[in-house]
Design goal:
With 130 residues, this protein is mainly β. The chain contains no helices and 10 strands. One of its GO terms (molecular function) is chitin binding.
Length: 130
Amino acid sequence: MSKAVDCTNKTDGVYERSCRSYTRCTEGEAEVVNCGIDEAFNTKTDICENKWIVEPPCGTYRDCADSKDGSYPDLETQCRSFYTCLSGVFFGHTLCPAGLVFHKELSVCDYVDNVHPPCGNNITALKGKL
């Protein structure tokens, strides 16, 4: 996260989150909180915690040893997140914004109607592949 959320007129709470950081609004002020080296953002508690106790998608390690470089949908979260592999190394998870799923072909989070199964419901995207 490079830019803080505008917390003006927002109630206190967490407004922007990724697996490694989040933005917390308190009394109209934004604070970007970066998780520690062995921590991940816990979507249930809205804080950074030890990565071994955080549930998927942020606390789950993926084996990238045999994977090509790129981003992959996390099927365990119904594609509401994705993980990145580079040179056989796992580079972590990224959460999609609410209501979006990972579109592998475009490497972006997109509306479910624009993405083919198993992440979306756009079967017309599959017609040429059947």
